Every structure is written in C-alpha cells, then in structure tokens.
Amino acid sequence: MGKSATVLAIETSCDETGVAVVTGKKSGNRYELTVREHLLHSQIATHKKTGGVVPEVAAREHAVQLPRLLVALSKKIPLAALMQEVDAIAVTAGPGLVTSLLVGVEVTKTIALAWEKPLVPVNHLEGHVYASLLKPNKGERHKQRDFVFPLLVLIVSGGHTELVLMKQHLNYRILGTTRDDAAGEAFDKTAKLLGLPYPGGPALSTLARTGDPTAITFPRPMLKSDNLEFSFSGLKTAVATYLKKQKRINRRDVAASIELAIVDALVGKTIRAVERYRPAGVVIAGGVAANRLLRSELEKALKQTAPKTKFFTPLLAYTTDNGAMIGAAGVIRYLNGTKSQPATLRVNPHLPLK
Ligand code: KG4
Ligand code: ZN
C-alpha cells in the first residue's frame, strides 16, 4: 500500500517567482509525481535592463508577483478546495538571495498559519535534482521512471556547479564543486563580454548554433587534473583577452568555442566520476541542464563509457527555476516526515545540500 500527499509549493530564491501544486505517491521507496498546477513569473525583462539580477529589485518583484500568482492559482483551484487537498506547504528555504527567499518564506508562513498546515522547507538544489521526475502534462508521450541508485548528479545552475553522489533518495555526498565561478555564471559572464543580453546562457547557446566550436581553443582548466573539481574563472579571462587582442571577431565562432569549452569541462569531470563510482544512473540538474550541447555530449560520452548507465534529464520547462521542482522535492520530503513550524523556519542563503 502506498502513501500519497499533495503540497502547495512556492519558489522565490532568485529571479523567477513560482507557484505549483504537486501530488506524490510513494510505493516502497519509489515515487510517482504529478504536477497539478504550475505557474511561473519570470523577471528576465526587469533584469535585462541592468544586465543582471539586482537582489533588492528581485525581492520587490517577488513581493508583487507572488500574491498575483496565488490569485491566478485560486482561479484554477478555488482556495477552499485547495486548503482541503493540500497536506503541507513547501517553500525554498535556501540557497539563494536572502531578500528574495524571505518573500517566499514569509508568505508561506502566513498561509501555513491561516490553513493550519505544516511547512516543508526545501533546498533549492534538491528541487533541481527532483525536477527530472516531473512528467509532462497529460496527453504528451513520455516514458517516466524513478531514479536508480547510486545516482550521480551534475548540478549546473547560475550559482552552483557540483558533482553529487546519491546512494538513495534524499541522500547526498558532494564529490566536487567549483573553485570559483559556476557553469551558469561562466555562460552569463562570457556572454556579457560578447554583448549578449541577460541571461547570457541561452543567448550564447543560440548564437553558438551557427558557429564553429573548434575555431578557438579556450582553456578547459582542471580538466586533466585527477579530481572532481571545476574552475571557470580562467575561461572568462581568456575570452576577455581574446576579444581585446583580435581585430576581426566572428562572434558565432567565439560563442561556439566558449560553449564547447564549458561543456567539455562538465562532461569530462562527470565521466571521470562515472568511472570512479560506477553509478546506475546520471542526472543533470539546474538551469544549464537546458543546454542542448551539454545534453547531447553527455549522453554520447555515457554511451561510450558506461552504456548501461541510465541518463535522466529534466523537461525543458522544469530546468530553470520553477515552483513544480520545489513541489517535487517538497512532497517527497513530506512523505518522509520533514516538517517545520512557522515560528522556527529560517531562510539560509548558503543552505548546504545534505
Ligand atoms: O537554475 P537556474 O535557473 O538558477 C539558479 O539556480 O542559479 O540557472 C540559471 C542559469 C543561468 O546562468 C543561465 O544563463 C543558465 O542557467 N542557462 C543556460 C541555458 N539556459 C539557462 N546556460 C546554457 N545554456 C542554456 N540553454
Ligand atoms: Zn536554480
């Protein structure tokens, strides 16, 4: 006999305001997740003006958008019905921008108090990991499976680059991290050097599609070193130097060469971890998991090195920040007994994954 639960989930850790209702079913140690509703407000247009996220501006926009999304949600599921259905309210407690996190957490506390429901604090990175278990809406064909363990996780977001080993659900051992910039940051900073708009990752990747990735050999720091660490700040310096020195620049070739340098570093270290730990599955998590080259190169490399390894990728809609991924992790946490109270829940901008 399985257990099931439904959570209302709220995400405001950075520059996307997300609200979702997610149901989870647990049979033994396996989970099946369904996204009932999923609403998102992207702040990209706001942050484009400043070329990046200004934390104070992001928090103020969450304060405007979160109530709007909750009103929109109430039009899909009347609040009285939602209150009946929901077992708990999940919210991102960290890591992220402190003022942005506070908006989501304080609103969540208020709902939890009014509805007399428990809170489930969720680590944003855990949300990215569990995004891969979310199915598409009804009608779309998609083979859904639960994770297999040990599972190697490559977290690649705007703030984090980590290789993590999961022996089972909700269990994390950090194998390696970045010594400086995160992979998403490397995309964003080099894209800025090329004059591309915020957020740089998708813009650079689009420009790269028609460029020659072998035109310029940018450094792949640490790729040869026998560890599972990353470093991306040297790439930014190399690109700045190249752009300063060259008289004629083919921006498409530069973009394609940058993208390949980042993807090579990520794939190289992931394969090194696969060889060392022989996981049953590999999953990519975080905004950079939307990158097409990363997906295809990692899939290719896995087929060559460890063809039996299962490869999990999130649906594109759930790669960058959203409420559904917080609902996914939140409902699994809830089914495993995680609960918190409004009076004691605190945000932690540096919340570790554990
Ligand atoms: O996970 P996310 O939405 O926010 C954080 O938790 O940081 O990740 C955002 C990052 C940004 O750096 C963005 O440029 C990058 O993900 N990104 C991409 C792509 N889509 C988003 N990077 C490369 N290629 C993409 N297609
Ligand atoms: Zn994120």
From TrEMBL:
Gcp-like domain mapped to chain residues: 35-327
GO cellular component: cytoplasm
Enzyme category, top tier: transferase
GO biological process: tRNA threonylcarbamoyladenosine modification
Binding-site residues for substrate, renumbered to this chain: I155, V156, S157, G158, G159, D188, G201, N291
Pfam families: TsaD (PF00814)
Cofactor note: Binds 1 Fe(2+) ion per subunit.
Localisation per UniProt entry: Cytoplasm
Catalytic activity: L-threonylcarbamoyladenylate + adenosine(37) in tRNA = N(6)-L-threonylcarbamoyladenosine(37) in tRNA + AMP + H(+)
An annotated Gene Ontology molecular function: tRNA N(6)-L-threonylcarbamoyladenine synthase activity
Binding residue positions for Fe cation: H124, H128, D321
Cofactor requirements of the protein: Fe(2+)
Entry EC number(s): 2.3.1.234
Alphabetical list of SUPFAM superfamilies matching this protein: Actin-like ATPase domain
Keywords of the record: Acyltransferase, Cytoplasm, Iron, Metal-binding, Transferase, tRNA processing
Role: Required for the formation of a threonylcarbamoyl group on adenosine at position 37 (t(6)A37) in tRNAs that read codons beginning with adenine. Is involved in the transfer of the threonylcarbamoyl moiety of threonylcarbamoyl-AMP (TC-AMP) to the N6 group of A37, together with TsaE and TsaB. TsaD likely plays a direct catalytic role in this reaction.
Family of this protein: Belongs to the KAE1 / TsaD family.
Name of the protein in its database record: tRNA N6-adenosine threonylcarbamoyltransferase
Gene for this chain: tsaD
